Amino acid sequence: MAMRRRTTTKIQVSDDRGVFMISVAAELADMHPQTLRMYETRGLITPQRSPKGTRLYSQEDVDRLRRIQEMTAELGMNLAGVERVFELEDQLERMTRRMRALEREADKLRAHMKSELERLRRENRAEIVKYTAGALVPAKDLKRFQIPIQRAG
To answer: Which CATH code fits 15-77?
Structure first.
């Protein structure tokens, strides 16, 4: 008798892909399916839909349901408070993305200014004089410091 080899196939599914039906998602989140429907009505969760209209929950959805459970059961928040927390988190995420974009833009501008300043220094090396405190000569003493200046053209 030949030995059968058992093989295991591991499938990697994106966290945002809807793969769980409502009963499975409810069990994973330790909630009643009706609670998930209520959260969907309130806009706290937005499951994907199959072509036939079946709710499909992703791992991200299940994690969000667990967070809602934690906020309501452990922290004593009501659903309006949970909604506000999610709104503020979304706002913070948008602002963080905007800040990072502005920082990247500032870095580009800083690099451009530095290269432009270096270009100007090279072009005008003979005309730029570094100023040091106390290096100015009073006007009455200028006759002693006659420096010939040659202008182009």
So the answer is: 1.10.1660.10
Identify whether the C-beta of residue 44 lies closer than 8 Å to the C-beta of residue 50: no
d(CA 24, CA 47): 13
The C-alpha atoms of residue 45 and residue 16 are separated, in whole angstroms, by 12
Domain boundaries, the chain: 15-77, 78-125
Q: pTM for the complete prediction?
A: 0.61
Over residues 41-90, the pLDDT tens digits come to: 999 999 999 999 999 999 999 999 999 999 999 999 999 999 999 999 99
Task: Give me 119's structure tokens.
Answer: 């270009």
Listed residue (47, 46, 56, 83) closest to 68, CA to CA: 83
d(CA 99, CA 57): 32
Q: How far apart are CA 132 and CA 136, in angstroms?
A: 8
Q: Going by C-beta distance under 8 Å and a sequence separation of 6 or more, which residues neighbour residue 67?
A: none
